[in-house]
Structures are given as structure tokens and as C-alpha cells.
Amino acid sequence: MIDEATLREALRLVVDPEIDCNIVDLGLIYGMAIDGARVTVTMTLTTPGCPMHESIACGVKCVLIDLEGVEDVEVNVVWDPPWTPSRMSDYGRMRTGIC
After folding, report:
1. Residue 52's CB: how many other CB atoms inside 10 A?
2. pLDDT tens string 42-67
3. pTM beyond 0.90
4. Within a domain: residue 89?
5. Orientation of helix 53-65 relative to helix 4-11, angle to 10°
């Protein structure tokens, strides 16, 4: 069975190369839905004009589709609510130097 904890752990492999921190600890993941073998991820980016938009979304799809039991992945990038550093984990803050 696929669960949110497994998905979240896999998503830690996806790194925003401009910030050099994974998207989970940056607080970019807003939600995940599991419907059988289909996974939908709702996420954002640090800025709407992020040049790594496609690369990060592709990374999300790639790491999740490789999980056992996942057959389809949809990534929805949203801008509301806007991302702020307050969404970051303690590790993300330490990694990026944002207090």
C-alpha cells in the first residue's frame, strides 16, 4: 500500500537546485491524494517565475512513479496560498540559513 509518509520520504529526493534544499523541507508540498495507484501532488514553488518549474515538477513525477504501487502521478503547481519561509522545516531553515 502507498501511504503519505512513503510519498513524502521519496519527495525528499527532489531538490530545488537554486536553493540546494529538498522540496519537502522547503515547505513546497501543500497536499497529496492517493486514489488506488494514482497519486496527485499539490505543490508550489518559492517564486511564480521560478526557472526550475518544469524540472522540479518532472522530478516529483520521476521519484513517485518509481515507487511500488504507483502507476500514475499528477502534479498540480498552485500559487495560492503563496509560499513563505514560514512553511520551511527546521532542517530547511538550517540548510538554507533562513532563521
Report:
1. 16
2. 999 998 888 888 999 999 999 999 99
3. yes
4. no
5. 130
